[in-house]
Design brief:
alpha+beta, 4 strands, about 15% strand, globular
């Protein structure tokens, strides 16, 4: 009798053991691709990003952990000239050419009513009551975990061979009016997505040392 077919918990535990047997940590090349050698891009090659690749990025993003598996992030892929014109209304002037040149720009948003889906995503215990009639707590939880998922999206995009350029120089109010009117969604930040043009990069900016940002107690 195969216990993995009968016990999802046992199967989950074995799956993690199997992954750890195959790979204990990423090598230096993978770390360079994801973080150490990666850069924020402001200029883009004239190469499209396919629907299939976007689906892969989102699938990887949704595999990342969130509180109670709530997955509050929502993603709007702005690619058409019409959608870009709507998004342009919200941008600071310096960011308009960056968005216009990118094959796609992702609006990373969060659903303040994410908790209504908890019984689907967290089926072994109904925790909807923790958020019902508590809009401030629900919004705070959605924002925190939606931001986390936005970071997963950026890492997933890099892992699949794309470049990213996050943007915060825009009006959330205008984006919400243009794209999320009469919904429970709110915009968080933007991600330009595509294949970067390295000739537009400048020298890497300084980073903190470990002691500047971390204490071990």
């Amino acid at each position: 009798m195969n216990i993995q077919k009968l016990d999802p918990r046992a199967k989950a535990q074995q799956d993690v053991r199997d992954v750890r047997k195959r790979i204990t940590q990423l090598d230096s090349d993978a770390l360079d691709l994801l973080l150490s050698g990666a850069r924020t891009h402001y200029s883009w090659q004239d190469r499209p990003v396919s629907d299939e690749l976007i689906r892969e990025i989102v699938k990887l993003t949704l595999d990342g952990p969130t509180s109670m598996n709530g997955s509050p992030a929502r993603f709007v892929i702005v690619r058409s000239p019409e959608a870009k014109a709507r998004l342009e209304k919200s941008l600071k002037p310096a960011n308009i050419p960056k968005m216009r040149a990118a094959p796609a720009t992702v609006i990373v948003a969060y659903d303040q009513e994410f908790w209504k889906q908890l019984l689907r995503l967290f089926p072994h215990e109904d925790r909807r009551h923790l958020f019902e009639h508590k809009p401030e707590y629900a919004a705070e939880t959605a924002f925190r975990n939606g931001t986390l998922q936005g970071a997963y999206f950026m890492i997933a995009a890099r892992a699949l061979g794309l470049d990213v350029g996050a943007l915060s120089g825009f009006s959330n109010k205008i984006v919400d009016e243009e794209f999320f009117a009469d919904t429970s969604l709110k915009s968080n930040f933007l991600i330009n997505l595509g294949y970067g043009n390295e000739t537009a990069l400048f020298g890497r900016l300084p980073r903190f040392d470990f002691e500047d940002v971390c204490k071990i107690l």
